[in-house]
């Protein structure tokens, strides 16, 4: 895989590869995306193969600007335009009814399409230089932790030659995937919480956004009960539960703690996470990845606060946890 610098030469190389139907991973403000020409079915096929993703799971189409939406979506409700105008470019994905020309391979056979205009300067330069839409799921193998640095992308896809290059834009600012709002039906629905909070969206829209039960509603891999998971079993616990577990002298345990009050850490691997949800989110995946690489028996995560600013974080931790508990890989 080529590691490209995010300068005009690197961007031009990325454009050439994308025009050939090759895959190029690129940074966004949320996580790295695994990009391919959204109008090239062969490139779309390569994305599914590289990720090991089931073909019925739809991809997000990344656009250079909101106006480009009309080529991909029809009957766009006013509310969707309002969110697009306010939050794009930014960490928000809109699910809309697709126009007839949109390939079934992108939508996983569904009548809807996911659209997003990313804010990261490298993503924007790439989209403008390419001059067309890029299909890009998160740049990780299916079910695994998303990549928030170019090195993570190299680690995820080091086997085989399926990904031609990665544009190195450093660490992603937000670190968690975009908020997804589904506008394909009468009432808007939150399909995936992100760092744009639900209350802000509801306030802007002046209406309620429904929260479907996990596992219900449209297919979205972010909605599977198990996703975003390290291979090491992960458990979310209170501070006192962690302390009790460490007292049993389990040396092969890593701890992601929120505070220093856990006494007697001993030889355990541990990370103190910031109490600010934005800082916590931006570092979470990198820490989980590093702790996972230690191949310990278990990763213990101290339960973050349950308040709304922590919704996206708690959502990802729940999914990481379920998968480990059920032992599915
Ligand atoms: O922040 C992000 O959204 C990142 C960056 C790269 O843009 N992308 C990302 O893509 O997280 P991905 O494919 O890993 O997650 C997109 C989610 C999936 O759960 C997918 O099923 C859902 O969006 N999705 C895409 N199109 C959909 C559709 N038409 N209906 C319902 N869900 C859809
Ligand atoms: Mg993903």
From TrEMBL:
Its EC number is 2.7.7.87. It is an enzyme of class 2 (transferase). Pfam families: Sua5_C (PF03481), Sua5_yciO_yrdC (PF01300). Residues 307-329 are annotated as: Disordered. Residues 316-329 have a biased composition (Basic and acidic residues). Belongs to the SUA5 family. This is Threonylcarbamoyl-AMP synthase. It comes from Thiorhodovibrio winogradskyi.
